[in-house]
Amino acid sequence: MVRQDVERLLWTIEHGRRLHAPESQHVDLKEEANRRLNNGRVLPGHSENEEAAVYLAPEVCCMANTPLGGALVLGVEDGTLLPIGTELDADWLAERVFVLCGVRVAVERRYLLGHRVLILWVPESPTPVLGPDGKLRWRVQDSCLAVDLQTWWRARWHADEDPVSDVEPRHGDGGESGGLGVGEPTSE
């Protein structure tokens, strides 16, 4: 599902189409930090940019906490969907993100309208991943939002649960064979 969302987004950009909501719960567009001046001019890129890694680390943590994980497309302007590219070394970036937040990402190099972009494929984490600021966040629609640990575990527990595990036979008073009940409260 995540790969399909990314491919659909890249296809729409390549074909000059505009999506109503290009970003989703599983796909986020990012520019490389510290490459744009206040006047909008994009500066040349470098193979290493510590500010970019520090900027991306919380986003990676957020995606890792989201069911199914997600992908960050680096080198595309969020508002206009114009590719501006990145020169970051993919291996360097993957290692820096891991050091900063403990999440291993796969980094794919692609070209989009002649600009080199990187796709950071973020796997879903089986345990909560705190961001560098010590906060737990996950994606809701197209934003990273804070979540408490109990809510995170409850969502994961219910996501893996058998949908009928709470269903038990219910028997009526007169020996009738009752239907199915799902954790219904009883009055005594």
UniProtKB/TrEMBL annotation:
Region (Disordered): 163-188
Basic and acidic residues compositional bias, start-end: 163-174
Keywords: ATP-binding, Nucleotide-binding
The keyword Transferase is assigned to this record: no
Name the UniProt record assigns to this protein: ATP-binding protein
Source organism of the structure: Kocuria soli
Keyword Transmembrane: no
GO-annotated molecular function: ATP binding
Annotated Schlafen AlbA-2 domain residues: 23-146
Pfam families reported for this sequence: SLFN_AlbA_2
